[in-house]
Design brief:
CATH superfamily: HAD superfamily/HAD-like
Radius of gyration: 19 Å
Distance between the termini: 52 Å
Number of helices: 7
Number of strands: 8
Strand order of the largest sheet: 5-4-1-6-7-8
Order of helices and strands: EHEEHEHEHEEHEHH
Number of domains: 1
CATH architecture: 3-Layer(aba) Sandwich
Structural class: alpha/beta
Strand content: 15-25%
Helix content: 25-40%
């Protein structure tokens, strides 16, 4: 049995809002804490301990909106697979391609940890092969269906919170991991403060 982490893009990686002008979709708001949480997950859960097979992101967006999402994902410095499915396609796609594919069978299905907030995601209620997690700003029907609800919103720490909670479910000591990472970072620090000095406002370049 394999385990997969699947993340919905809009509403989880972002706050779910699209900013438009007369030419169409222009901007999305992404959270600042999610990159580090996903980096830690990939390092600890996939590379080091091999508890999970992969991280995937699902988005139903097209055109400029998809380009914005991909740009952000590329900037996060985490190895993630990106799939394009519409909201009503995601439940079938997750069952078909993750639970009962890639080594999963009816007798021994894979396990999916899915973080989403779409109305269609309420279908995951009582699905023993999918642990469904969502954020506090999801619709009520979605929160009622979820196994875990973060007290934080999408794009505002909700994804980071849920990713770290999945790591804790698997017995990882998050604070110890943080401390180890800080210790390793000491080796990269410059010997003098001025080596990282950018200037004094308002003349910083």
């Amino acid at each position: 049995m394999k385990k997969f982490l699947i993340i919905d893009a809009d509403g989880i990686l972002t706050d779910g809002k699209f900013l438009y002008d007369t030419h169409g979709k222009k901007y999305k708001n992404f959270g600042v804490n999610d990159s580090l949480a996903l980096q830690l997950f990939h390092e600890e859960m996939i590379v080091k301990r091999q508890l999970f097979d992969s991280i995937s992101v699902m988005t139903g967006d097209r055109g400029t909106g998809l380009d914005i999402t991909v740009t952000r994902l590329n900037n996060m410095r985490v190895e993630m697979n990106v799939y394009n499915f519409f909201n009503d396609e995601k439940p079938t796609a997750i069952d078909r391609f993750f639970v009962y594919d890639q080594g999963g069978t009816e007798e021994n299905p894979n396990m999916v940890y899915f973080i989403g907030d779409d109305i269609f995601d309420a279908i995951y209620q009582d699905n023993e092969n999918v642990m469904f997690l969502t954020t506090v700003n999801a619709p009520a029907i979605v929160k009622e269906a979820a196994d875990i609800v973060s007290k934080y919103e999408g794009g505002s720490g909700g994804l980071a919170d849920l990713v770290l909670r999945i790591m804790e479910m698997h017995g990882l000591d998050i604070l110890r991991i943080f401390n180890d990472r800080v210790e390793r970072s000491k080796e990269k620090l410059p010997t003098a403060l001025n080596d990282r000095f950018l200037g004094t406002t308002p003349h910083v370049k």
